[in-house]
């Protein structure tokens, strides 16, 4: 095999190797948080919201932007100042992080997985 081919094949595989699994989240425990969004990101590989809920600042890892858009969650629905409800699983190591399974924003509930 030639070197350019190997280099190209390896570089295409990097994004797949870099993507994490979900084992860092405890799917045996469900969290439901309602709070005010203080920051949000609608970027790859996953969107996120930081919200104030239960006296803490939480980070909720969302779905990829394309999935959120396809399911009807516009970026402005999770802008700072919005109130959202997020249902998901807590991170095993980070006590204020969760993986969101669904989000309710602007009166609309979106399944993220």
TrEMBL record:
<dbReference type="InterPro" id="IPR046150">
    <property type="entry name" value="DUF6152"/>
</dbReference>
<dbReference type="Pfam" id="PF19649">
    <property type="entry name" value="DUF6152"/>
</dbReference>
<protein>
    <recommendedName>
        <fullName>DUF5666 domain-containing protein</fullName>
    </recommendedName>
</protein>
